[in-house]
Amino acid sequence: MRNYQVVSVKQPWASLLLAGVKKYEVRSWAPPYLGYIVLHASSGKASGMPERRAEPLYKTAIRRAHMKDEEAWPRSAIVGVMEVVRIWEPELRRVRC
Questions:
Q1: Which sign, positive or negative, has the C-alpha torsion 38, 42, 47, 50?
Q2: pTM exceeds cut of 0.85
Q3: How far is residue 46's CA from residue 77's CA, in Å, rounded to a whole number?
């Protein structure tokens, strides 16, 4: 049996990742390997949603992913499997005083 890492993401970001509309996920940690991870849609709601709903880019993303009905978005559930193909690590910059 193969072990998979599970990543929990709030909606609508989880479904946008699966739809391929959201291409990147930023985390404070990196997955231990490249390959497949299980995507879990958490029960929490993303912060700042009232303001975000008014943004044209957000509206376009939701439309492209066919996610018009917020009540239909899965929560507290495994929603799919994604492949991690690249990991970018932030550059540490030294600040001179």
A1: positive
A2: no
A3: 16
Q: Rounded to an integer, what distance in angstroms lies between the CA atom of residue 43 and that of residue 25?
A: 18
* Residues in a beta bridge with 80: 39
CB 7 within 8 A of CB 42: no
Chain centroid, CA 47 distance in Å: 13
pLDDT digits (tens, 9 = 90+) for 60-80: 999 999 999 999 999 999 999
Greatest Cα pair distance in the chain = 53
CB 84 within 8 A of CB 37: yes
Distance CA 42, CA 27 (A): 15
Please state, in angstroms and as integers, the Cα–Cα distance from residue 21 to each residue in 3, 6, 32, 44, 57, following that order: 27, 20, 24, 21, 11
Rounded Cα gap, residues 26 and 86, in angstroms: 12
